[in-house]
Amino acid sequence: MSESTTVAIIADIHGNLPALxxxxxxxxxxxxxxxxxxxDHASGPLWPAETVALLMARSWFYIAGNCDRLVATHPxxxxxxxxxFAFDRLAPTQRVWLGALPATATVADSILAFHGTPKDxxxxxxxxxxxxxxxxxxxxEIAQRLDGASSAVMVCGHSHIPRVxxxxxxxxxxxxxxxxxxxxSGGTASHLMESGSPDARYAVLERTSxxxxxxxxxxxxxxxxxxxxxxxxxxxxxxxxxxxxFAT
Length: 248
Fold this sequence. Notes:
It is a single chain. The chain is an alpha/beta fold. 30% of the residues lie in helices and 27% in strands. It has helices spanning 17-29, 48-56, 66-73, 81-89, 92-99, 139-146, 223-232, 236-244; strands at 4-10, 34-37, 61-62, 104-107, 111-114, 127-130, 133-136, 153-155, 163-167, 170-174, 182-184, 192-194, 200-208, 211-219. The protein is globular.
């Protein structure tokens, strides 16, 4: 029998501790030892310090997301509301840990991991924003954003939308978001990202010989606890997203 490799991919926890605990329990139930976390660990009005404490105790592979970078390196006064909430509650050692995380990593020999694109943690790889709507990016757009990066399998986060896309010989997987199933980006280029479900998301990749199979996992958890926490902290937009998977 050929040997197999199984890897769990998680992303975009955003301080949602009960969602992370549910996902971690399912990964443990499956007996998966290799876990890749694609970043945006803490930002948001939920449990940033408790979430980072749990993560720091796990021997997983970690990538920095754009929110991690901002919380770790930017002055508090320059941060948006979600990042500032995390900044104010994280211990200095936790912010140092976030700041030391790499932007990319190669796992299991052939999986290239990053948060947004290989060279930009704040850009989407698999989605294109047009006005207030988003669409699946065309293969030529994805190839341009990869900017020469090459690997049999790539994993990314940032958009919070679970997807499996093939561009040439490369398979690209976004596991979706563990902790925030929808958001309105706000700002001058405001747009919505919506998964349509409150479930916690992650992905399982399994390789037998040279073939990868991919499973996108959707798990129910106590999303009402997370929504109530967001409401208690004055973020009714997050509460709506956590309860429904929609941003409007």
